[in-house]
Specification:
Chain lengths: 642, 620
């Protein structure tokens, strides 16, 4: 009956105003939405109501149940259809007056109490007994338990009750977030925050600020977007370069910006890349949000300010150093203190898992949310034993990497992983799973860095999976009478991880014709491996006169405007470098031809370049506004240069 | 020994009954907390030694039956005032005030010769000897269901409980009574919660069984905290297996797989006995996986409460079980829907659980015919205060207060005047003597401004000051309030302050007190706060003149409030000097054989002089 997922709208009457709202809305919430004033001292929209101050008492009745009426707390009472609510009944007002007078006796100096008391005509406490300014609204305790580590609680009971850390000692769990002090309506919790040092509950905290390497920063602005509090700001320097600045007085130290920085320009005090990338060998590594209540695992837990702080590099490093598996303990997204911490963590983990699969390590990274307060500890134990029973991690080595963070670091690790002869990517499985042909054919289509880029930056072509890309290439080759089999590889060029050519050379053997998706991969194979390879781009260019537009419209319907032109391998716009004249000339021809056929969009696809541009200009990014005109400008330049 | 089927249980029961039948005589020594404090354990030892000395064949456990005497410790017999008690079967003689020194005589006279030891027998006020329990008025008017066998069985012995028909209800349920039907039986019986609220138990179970949830829990509330109440204590110490059986049946009915017994830590013996009972049940396959081979899984464990009165409130108890601060929450969403760990939970008082097996075996109709239209069955009370026979009683609902006080309790101590009775502990109210005809049932007590509560009955005589009484309870609740909500925390402090002032003789506006009480009553979060003002409101309702005497005449009619009483010595003082000797403050002076005087400046009002005066010349 009540199981419908869609909460029904019900009609209630508050102070003679007829209002509609979903069933289950609390009376106080509804009243606030409609500007009806009900006093309250312990309510906060970000916290579960608890009904401690009892000022939001209202009287309810129901026309269908004559004689039934009740005094309830508005913050906790869910509305039902037909309810009639009186927020100012004499009984309620009198109770509020008594309560305010009692509160005023306790805390005569508290401005919120004084103001409210005055409104209800309570001028002076009758029996002043100022014991403490604290009105025990419990907001501090609740905010700590809901959004932080649950370091403080109430001690004693009854009249002796006070807010304090356990045993009135400096609380172990306190992370110095200061939420308790800032939410307190009577400023009862003393704290200071100066020069990166927070003092609260007799503890002192050095804040875990991001540290900026200005030389490495490219000013891409990714940190700006990820920060839950919009604290990083990209500013233009005198010399025209762009560098991020972070105001340490506002930073909360979650580390999300550090995790997403693509150039490795950010690091974090006390949670540096160097410290965190030190994986633990042969065990199940557990990384956890500091706010996660789960503490019962048998493995050592690496506590992070936010699980969003983990990076793909960090996870791969841990696996490279022999971790059997990695468990990340987050919280469900609605409980995340930073609004996108958990989603960021899950994206990172999906990426790292895909990369690990690609190089043959399998899925070894798990993520679990703790729902609410208590997760069943045995579920966690079961998961841990599952992880311990995975096939043993074949890696147990501690190579010295030069980069600690950023995409450089990631490439370095992938390259290293590609060279591990113990790791055999299970090509057949992957291809079967992707529903791609896996039989051997004379020509080899070398995937190269494209799957890696696909994983790291999202689809290389918008809306296209690697699979569509490969099918298109296969069809194209088929069109030219070349039957090709797919060779899955993490790449030979620097995009997906340099150095793969050596390993691939052995596997490719003496294949006569190797076609690569990425031009750089072809170059690397030829240059270092002596393998006769040519990129699809080159092939297409060499056969451009045979190119039939219609034949290439494989994956999308013919009338789709975006695929009117599929000049997929025409323009190499790596790092916004101008095109060689010859290519530019060819491109112009294609552009003219495409335009004559009514094309409106142009796809620009060298994988790395395309992906990078895509990443920077993704919807919502501040660069979208600036970069697109730049790209257009370059196209116009190319056109006019001829 | 593990019972893997209902057949095995029945067979084992027959074995135990056969063992019990071998004994010629049974000697039951009350080992409830009250009797233990008076040396019941020594009495038991002395009886055993006497048996050895007299060469009487005996056994202390049912597992080693013999042809002679079964000497066993039992739970509370009830008449704690006259403990330690020893009962002898098959004659059903009750001996009172037994001391270890009496053991030899009991063995020689009663066990060997089969005669009565007359000096240990209850003597009625009309002078007649009443050797058997059925002749003693205290027991005559009782009907025992929850406390049945409390004084007859060895609480530590699963064998004894099974021999007395224990776990037959469970077997009956498991051998083909569907859960819905069990709930229907409880509903038809009209059983209501015995912990205070009086919510219909069957309705509670049904709501829980129907509520959506991944897990269901059941809880036995043994966190009895009312001053002067010990019904739950007696049950947990005396018939732990009955509570466990009731809870297993409840778990079956609502579909719970785990349960908790929340027992206050101040009841070490109850915890110990329940612990032992749980261990025996687990070993016998009556708890744990696949109970009696019927596919029912149920785990039960004990959780000891830290001694906060508020943790007897259901939602606070659940928070405490979860390991959090024991604070109540608003129950607009009932705990049968969202209780322990936010899952559907049935919480019942241990007394309610103890009623369940009897309802199953004897039928809902049998239970429903006891009591009144609104309150069915029986209720255990702890009868204490200024009553001649205090102790644990169980009477059918609807028995009048008068009957309890005078027929069972034997009237007021020292032929005093019956003034009032406080029912329902600190959350209840007092009922004056002129309303003593009221029946003990939920509705009638509520109407009179009190409540059934968990079953404390405190009898008061003319020496009780009602303002002082109200102040006492408010002080108790002030200390026990959790402090979460303002009206209870700050309001009770204020209320205590105002009552304190009245007992000091300072002028006070009774209307202000009434207003404050009203705000606390409607404004408080949980039952503790909402009912905390009952003692004040009920005394104000029935004894306003006593309040006025304090305020207007600076007098305490009962002579309790120290600030308002003044000791003086009358003219009939014989000058014996005893008062002068006992006075701790040297406030009394006077020549020998001359009337003495009290110096009011020095007098501490301790009353020591009043007690020693041979001619009652000192008055308040």
């Amino acid at each position: 009956m009540q199981a419908s997922s869609d909460p029904q709208l019900v009609t209630v009457t508050i102070d003679k105003r007829v209002l509609q709202a979903p069933a289950g809305t609390m009376i106080l919430q509804l009243a606030r939405q409609h500007g009806i004033e009900i006093p309250s001292l312990c309510d906060h929209e970000g916290l579960e109501p608890q009904g401690a101050c009892r000022l939001c008492l209202v009287e309810i009745s129901h026309p269908q149940w004559p004689g039934w009426h009740k005094v309830v707390t508005a913050c906790l009472y869910p509305i039902e259809d037909g309810l009639v609510i009186d927020t100012q009944s004499p009984q309620v007002v009198q109770a509020r007056q008594v309560i305010l007078e009692l509160l005023l006796s306790r805390a005569p100096q508290a401005p919120v109490v004084r103001a409210l008391a005055q409104r209800y005509g309570v001028e002076q406490p009758r029996y002043p007994d100022p014991s403490s300014n604290c009105i025990l609204c419990n907001l501090c305790v609740r905010v700590c338990h809901t959004y932080s580590t649950g370091a403080i609680a109430t001690m004693q009971r009854g009249i002796l009750k006070e807010v304090a850390p356990p045993l009135a000692q400096a609380p172990v769990e306190c992370v110095g977030c200061g939420a308790c002090a800032t939410i307190c309506p009577v400023d009862h919790i003393p704290w200071t925050r100066e020069h990166g040092v927070v003092q609260i509950w007799s503890k002192e905290f050095q804040l875990a600020y991001p540290v900026i390497d200005a030389a490495a920063c490219t000013g891409c602005g990714v940190c700006e977007e990820i920060c839950p509090f919009s604290i990083p700001r990209v500013v233009v320097q005198r010399d025209g370069s762009m560098v991020v600045t972070i105001n340490q007085d506002y930073c909360r130290g979650c580390g999300l910006c550090v995790a997403v920085c693509p150039s490795g320009a950010l690091d974090q005090q006390y949670f540096s890349h160097q410290q965190l990338n030190r994986g633990q060998a042969t065990t199940v590594q557990v990384m956890s949000c500091t706010r996660s209540p789960w503490r019962t695992t048998k493995n050592q837990i690496l506590k992070l300010p936010c699980t969003g702080r983990i990076t793909t590099t960090m996870l791969l490093d841990s696996l490279i150093q022999g971790s059997q598996a990695i468990l990340v303990l987050g919280r469900s997204q609605e409980h995340c203190a930073y609004h996108n911490g958990e989603t960021t963590a899950q994206q990172t983990i999906a990426q790292a898992n895909a990369l690990a699969q690609l190089v043959g390590l399998g899925t070894r990274i798990y993520w679990r949310a703790t729902q609410g307060q208590d997760g069943p500890a045995n579920a966690l134990a079961a998961l841990e034993s599952t992880m311990a029973n995975l096939p043993p991690n074949p890696l147990l080595a501690t190579p010295a990497f030069t980069h600690a963070s950023g995409h450089q670091a990631l490439r370095e690790r992938l390259a290293w992983l590609r060279c591990q002869t113990s790791l055999q990517p299970d090509r057949q499985t992957w291809l079967t799973a992707q529903k791609l042909p896996c039989e051997q054919r004379p020509v080899v289509l070398y995937t190269g860095c494209v799957p890696v880029i696909d994983i790291l930056y999202g689809p290389v072509l918008p809306g296209w999976e690697v699979r569509s890309w490969l099918l298109q290439a296969l069809a194209l080759l088929e069109h030219w009478g070349m039957s090709a089999s797919i060779f899955l590889s993490a790449g030979a060029c620097t995009h997906g991880g340099a150095g793969g050519w050596e390993h691939d050379r052995a596997l490719l053997g003496n294949k006569t014709q190797v076609i690569t998706l990425c031009p750089d991969c072809a170059q690397a194979l030829q240059k270092h491996g002596g393998i006769p390879a040519c990129s699809l781009d080159q092939l297409v260019l060499s056969k451009h006169d045979q190119l039939s537009w219609r034949a290439l419209k494989l994956a999308l319907p013919a009338d789709h405007p975006a695929v009117e032109v599929l000049a997929s391998h025409l323009i190499t716009m790596t790092q916004a470098r101008p095109l060689p004249l010859e290519q530019a000339h060819q491109m112009r021809q294609y552009l003219q031809q495409a335009a004559s056929e009514g094309a409106t969009h142009l796809l620009v696809p060298t994988p790395a370049a395309w992906a990078y541009q895509q990443y920077l200009t993704r919807p919502g990014s501040w660069r979208q506004v600036h970069l697109e005109p730049i790209l257009l400008h370059q196209l116009v330049q190319v056109q006019s240069s001829q | 020994m593990k019972l893997t089927s209902i057949g095995a249980l029945n067979q084992w029961r027959q074995q135990q009954q056969a063992a019990l039948a071998q004994f010629r005589t049974r000697v039951q020594v009350c080992c409830g907390t009250g009797c233990l404090a008076r040396g019941a354990e020594e009495v038991l030892q002395a009886l055993q030694q006497a048996c050895v000395a007299e060469g009487v064949e005996h056994s202390l456990v049912l597992a080693q039956p013999c042809q002679g005497v079964y000497l066993l410790p039992t739970g509370c017999h009830g008449l704690c005032q006259m403990g330690p008690q020893v009962r002898i079967w098959p004659q059903d003689w009750v001996y009172h005030h037994v001391k270890p020194a009496d053991a030899r005589e009991i063995v020689q006279v009663s066990l060997v010769q089969g005669k009565l030891v007359e000096r240990l027998v209850y003597r009625h006020f009309d002078g007649s000897l009443r050797p058997t329990a059925t002749q003693i008025p205290f027991y005559q008017h009782q009907v025992r269901i929850a406390t049945q066998d409390c004084g007859a069985l060895d609480p530590q012995s699963l064998e004894a409980y099974v021999a007395a028909g224990g776990f037959a209800a469970l077997a009956q349920v498991l051998s083909g009574l569907p859960p819905g039907q069990v709930i229907s039986m409880i509903e038809e019986s009209g059983l209501r919660g015995r912990g205070g609220g009086g919510y219909p138990t069957g309705r509670k179970w049904r709501a829980c069984a129907q509520a959506p949830g991944q897990q269901r829990y059941i809880i036995g509330n043994g966190d009895e905290g009312d001053p002067g109440a010990f019904m739950d204590l007696a049950l947990m110490e005396g018939v732990p297996y009955r509570i466990i059986e009731g809870m297993i049946i409840g778990a079956y009915a609502v579909g719970a797989r785990s349960g908790y017994l929340y027992v206050r830590n101040e009841y070490p013996l109850a915890v110990q006995r329940l612990q032992q009972a749980l261990q025996r049940c687990y070993a016998a396959g009556l708890l744990g996986p696949d109970i009696l081979g019927c596919g029912l899984d149920f785990d039960l464990q004990i959780n000891r409460g830290g001694g906060a009165f508020v943790c007897g409130e259901s939602s606070a108890l659940m928070r405490s079980l979860e390991g959090r601060v024991g604070e109540p929450r608003a129950k607009y969403i009932h705990s049968v829907v969202k209780g322990l760990y936010d899952q559907p939970t049935v919480l019942n008082n241990v007394e309610t659980w103890a009623c369940v097996p009897a309802i199953i075996t004897k039928g809902a109709a049998w239970f429903a015919q006891l009591g009144t239209a609104d309150s069915k069955g029986t209720k255990a009370f702890s009868l204490v205060g200024k009553v001649v026979h205090s102790g644990l009683i169980e009477v059918p609902m609807g028995t009048s207060i008068q009957d309890v006080v005078f027929k069972i309790g034997g009237g007021i101590i020292a032929d005093g005047t019956f003034k009032a009775v406080q029912t329902g502990g600190p959350s209840g109210g007092c009922i004056p003597a002129h309303l003593a005809h009221l029946p003990l049932e939920y509705a009638a007590l509520n109407q009179a401004g009190s409540m059934m509560g968990s079953g404390g009955l405190i009898v008061m005589d003319q020496h009780t000051c009602m303002v002082d009484l109200a102040k006492y309870f408010i002080h108790f609740l002030l200390e026990e309030s959790c402090g979460k909500c303002v009206p209870c925390r700050e309001g009770l402090r204020r209320l205590h302050l105002l009552l304190e002032r009245i007992t000091q003789g300072e002028a006070q506006d009774l209307e202000e007190i009434r207003q404050l009480c009203q705000a606390i009553k409607i404004g408080s979060l949980c039952g503790l706060g909402q009912s905390a003002v009952n003692p004040v409101l009920s005394t104000l309702r029935y004894y306003e003149e006593e309040y006025r005497a304090h305020i207007q005449e600076q007098k305490c009619p009962a002579g309790v409030c120290r600030a308002l009483i003044h000791f003086r010595i009358l003219e009939n003082c014989v000058g014996c000097g005893r008062c002068r000797e006992v006075c701790p403050a040297d406030a009394i002076a006077g020549e020998k054989k001359q009337p003495h005087r009290i110096d009011p400046q020095r007098c501490l009002k301790c009353g020591a002089c009043v007690e020693v005066c041979p001619v009652n010349a000192i008055v308040k």
